[in-house]
Predict the structure.
Amino acid sequence: MKKIGIIGLVIVLLLVFSSPALAAWTNRQTKAHEIAEIARSIGLGENDPIIKRAQEIWLEDYYNSPQPTKTYLGTYYITGYDICYSCCGKVDGITASGVKARVGRTIAAPSNLPFGTKLYIEGIGERIVEDRGGSITGQRLDLLCNNHSECYAVTGYYKVYIVK
Ligand SMILES: [Zn+2]
């Protein structure tokens, strides 16, 4: 890394922490991390006020940033589908919500879970409710997959949470 002088470091610090406009514009947490890294690279120790202040800023922003909350919904039986004719009765890949189905994002859920609901499925990850299905009622979900072998592989019971 290119070494910068202590003057340069102080100027960076002043710009980042003193200008409200700039502070709002930049990601303070990322900048604080970068400043600590620069300070270390020019040989400042962990007890140096610059590094200590950068760590404070980083922690402040870490604890102030909203953490997503997960609410347990229950155990769901999850099957897989792809956009083939036998799964969907059509091949345009357009979901019931109107958006194009995308593997890694789309899941079909019962209508008590509105379109746009973000679900966290243990062992699978986050998906967005974008589709419906005739057999998808109660504790059932249908996960969009790339092909039928993925569909078979994914089928099973999973713990499901709503992410807010
Ligand atoms: Zn299919």
